[in-house]
Write a structure and sequence with these properties.
This protein has 242 residues and is α/β, with parallel strands linked by helices. The chain contains ten helices and five strands.
Length: 242
Amino acid sequence: MPKDRIRLDALDQNKSITQEDYKSGVKKLQLELLGMQLELLEKKIPVVIVIEGPDAAGKGGAIKRLTENLDPRILRVYSINKPTPEELARHYMWRFWTKLPPRGEIAVYDRSWYGRVLVERVEGFCTEAEWKRAYAEINEFERLLVDDGTILVKLWLHITKDEQLARFKRREADPYKHWKIGEEDWRNRKRWDEHIEAAEDMFEKTGTDTAPWNVIPANFKWYARIKTLKVVIRAVSKALGK
């Protein structure tokens, strides 16, 4: 049977958490994940965590809480930006193959190979034939990782269009966060509906039994950060047989 299409704008964003529960919950979950990190190293199990979502969805904040108390010697966080000339001269997946973690280590991707079917599709940085072909290429890539013993966790943090506007304005007004907002963010916002359609197509085409998507309501940052930790811990626990 075909899966029900995920509708991002219909997502329940009325999920919150108190500050007290957030602070105590983060510490507890971070400690639990740290213990698992050491076990992953012993058992030589690599972990790949992909975090996608609209601009200002809180990806950076979620990644900080996910990683800040882990052993940095066996952890890498990659912020994926525009490809370099060297990367553009090769297949678009090449730059991700070179960033896969050694066995027993963790790699977190702030944006990922899914750019091919998201921003590159919407902005016309690749042809329609290329981004349509990418769904099968990505599915095969992820199947190879999982079959080889990698724990793969894919998360989409989602905010509403109104919440994005409020965060953009706060960033512009805050001298400590002004660097987080630029012309590209405003340009992407003008094509919100196209980006949403691309994301929903992506869930439908690449949300497989091997590598499912976890869509997290992120209008409330505390809730999204706790949920991100819980999703990762659940996936790692399952792989470790806990």
